[in-house]
Amino acid sequence: MIDWKTLPLFIASILYILLAVRLMRLRYAQLDDEHTSGHLIGLFVVLATLLADEFFVQNRLLTEGQGYWALLITSLNLVLGPLTYLYASALCKRFSWSKVVLHLSPIMMFFILSICAQKIYPELQQNRLFLTFFSLLFLGSLLPYLMFTFALLKEYLDSIKAHFSNVQRHDVSWFKWWLYLITAMAILVCTSPFMPQLFWLDTHWLLFIFALLLSTKVDFIAPSAIAPLDTQVTVEKEALKGIEKVFTKIDSEVKKQKLYLRNGLTLNELANTCVMTTHEVSQAINLIYHSNFYDYMNNLRVEESKRLLLRSPAQQVTTIAYESGFNSKSCFYNIFKQRVGCTPTEYRKKSVLN
């Protein structure tokens, strides 16, 4: 008899498989970067396996802690940290097969040594010392990977703002939530021996909630890898004057042609328009405007929207958002409020009153 309370585990397992299949289809259609999606597919398959195993164990369809399968499941828990880090590395275009081998081979070694140890000591998986050792190993492998992944994620977020004027296509907020989730898992593993009352917060249920949220994200795809631009360099005064002229030319061209009204404008497109390299354009914006390409374009869009709000008081805010170069109402509202300190509607009302 299957316990209905365990059904979310089985449902989550299916959801992760479906997410992996979706990414495989995108990869086959060459709509996704093969290395970034490859690591993500591996991560989803591992999560699906872990959750399916927990479902079968809780319903006594599998014997807990017995045989090579149980050792494989134990080893798969150790894969979560490396796969998460490798995915973040691929996002920053730092993929290499040697890196994959370097980070995954110790887990394979652990699996092989565990099999050898179980042959000598059949009760290995019930041994308290082994379980304690595994918990420490899990934490010891997960925490450093989390630290490096957060650093890579910040680098990636900086990179997309250096390349794109709209970043929705490269949204990685779900990945940030995944990092928070496995951080919570690590905390639970640390505190559960000392605070048994936290046991109700089963990590498998956290994985179920994450699968549910990710599956409802209709436009979810693995974002493309982007190499960071190295523009933060020390520049001499004479060279800086030359860069100022470059920025003046860029700024003049952008405002003359109103390039910021193109909601999908990229750094590469702007560089081609100005007959420059992407490095020259990015460096000029960073050093002279003291910001990135994303902020530069969106500041111009906000100024345009402010003019339209006052010039056409009867026009809908959503229409103004699109006419100003934004590709969504939510994006427009968020950026406008950050820059101006109030919503577009509030700005219009205040201006009318003044």
Structural description of this entry:
The structure is a single chain. α1 (7-28) runs antiparallel to α2, α10 (267-273) packs across α11 and α12 (293-311) packs across α15 (344-353). This protein has 15 helices and no strands. The chain starts with 6 loop residues before the first helix and ends with a helix. The longest helix is centred in the middle third of the chain and has 36 residues, at 128-163. The chain is elongated and about 80 Å long. The model has no long low-confidence stretch (mean pLDDT 83). The protein has three domains: 4-215; 229-290, no CATH class; 299-354, Homeodomain-like (Arc Repressor Mutant, subunit A, Orthogonal Bundle), CATH 1.10.10.60. It has 354 residues and is mostly helical.
Would you kindly provide a brief summary of this structure?
The chain is an all-alpha fold.
Topology of helices and strands:
Layout: H1 7-28, H2 34-58, H3 67-77, H4 80-91, H5 97-120, H6 128-163, H7 173-191, H8 203-215, H9 237-257, H10 267-273, H11 278-288, H12 293-311, H13 317-323, H14 329-340, H15 344-353
Average of per-residue pLDDT values = 83
Q: Helical percent range?
A: over 70%
Quantity of strands, as a count = 0
The low-confidence parts are none
Decide which structural class fits the backbone: mainly alpha
Integer-rounded radius of gyration? 25 Å
Q: What portion of residues belong to β-strands?
A: under 5%
The description of the largest β-sheet is: none
How many structural domains? 3
Q: Helix and strand string, N-terminal first?
A: HHHHHHHHHHHHHHH
The N- to C-terminal Cα distance equals 71 Å
Number of helices: 15
The gross shape turns out to be elongated
